[in-house]
Amino acid sequence: MRHRTITIMVIIYIIATSLSSQKSNAFGAEEIAETQRALKGKSTGEKIAFWAEHFVGRPYDPDYLGEYVRKEVIVTDERIDCMYHVFRSVELAMSDTPEGAVEEALNRRFHTKGVIKDSRVLNYSDRFQYGEDMIVSGKWGKDVTSTFGPTAYVGGSRGINKLAILSKKQAIKALGNFNSGDIVFFIKDPKKRQVGEIVGHIGIVKKELNNLYLIHANGQKGKDSGEVKKVPLKEYLHAMNFVGIKITRF
Fold it and tell me: What is the pTM of this model?
């Protein structure tokens, strides 16, 4: 059993090294399928964190609309923003094949369900455009915010009157409750919101022994800079300009 475990770890390491050497290109279907096979038996959270980390170093997508929406496609791994990063990491983790990941995308990225014809997504107008809608939908994990500690309420928008969140201070206190694969939604100060968005950023947690990391697509729309980064979660929470967070978990 120990030999088998070591062998699996070696396989995953080789695949990870291979994929990380191709940062400037999209992942190939063969590499994705091989990695998905190697990850069988891992928990959903571990798979989500694993795929999230594979995108580290990938250039940020500066398109305000999102390159995947602009091109009306499901997969645009060359450049990614924070929402696409979460989308793709979960979809790859929840499927066993590259084709299965596309089917997951059609089920999860939309309020209803995505429709493809001739390789073109026909109804991206029905997609999740706001992080808060992802939380409410339940398609992106169960809202476990209240299990982390005392919550506080902040004003909502777009039909949401108020939102129960972990304050910045409480989130730091609750670090011991995070697991690999947790999705963190960063909540904007109501005074600083634009176009009604409550969630200003999204990232994925990875737990390594006693260390916690946030893996997120760090960049700014309209500026051709930034990339997916892996940073200590505690440091990010201390430095962030958001008023608090919400967490979902599969």
Answer: 0.89
